[in-house]
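One-letter codes give the sequence; the fold follows as tokens. Both lines appear below.
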Amino acid sequence: MINHFKYYYNFLKYLNYECYDFLKRKFHDKSLSETREGYLRKAVDILKQNNNILGSYEEILQEISSYVTNSGAFFYADPRLPCKYINYWLYDTIKDKNPFSSDELLNAFYNKITKISDCQTYKKHIEKEVYNELKELYNLHEHLFKYKNESTGRQEKKCDHAKNGAELYESCVVKCKWGYNPDYCTSLEKFRKVYEKRMTQDQKCLDIMQTLTPVGHNPVANFLNVTLAMSIITFVFIYFYKVCNNTILNIF
């Protein structure tokens, strides 16, 4: 197994861009045999029979088909990475369907697909707040992925992704001004570094790309910290000034 990632500490909750980029490419590699596709279709039938997903059935089938091939992400990387993304993707796809019980549905699905049976260990309900954060981060990664991989003949579309990714980042980074989820903010900082590194390498979209606000940048907080520090220094100075004066008076 190829050790493709050096960022394991942060993947327990959020995938960074490097992981997302790798999985995105592998998940587009659909090489299922007819036999395997038949097994997969039977598994996905569980969703079709027990949930109102008729309109999403083929989409789910085609998307998941790339997740279970031997040439896909499971073969090349730590299985926890694709497992975590599959868990997110399934939740994202069926969260608005009624009736919806994520635990029952995911259990039924994983039990029927031998290739991803190991994902049972990492399958768990996604809290709404965490899901919203994942959605924001993966949308950021998607903009960057499309910006980096869009064909040169679609330069305008390529630059749109660079612009939209920067705007989405700025709307997310404000949460980190006053001490937010450290994993989320760390993921944003990693995105910023990848984005700005890319900006120095590709000059074609430079007119609409921008230097992103560093995570944790808060002029108001910095001002308050400086003000507090000055107040403490002033207090200490006055205190020792009075002590010294009293000492001199006592001596004389």
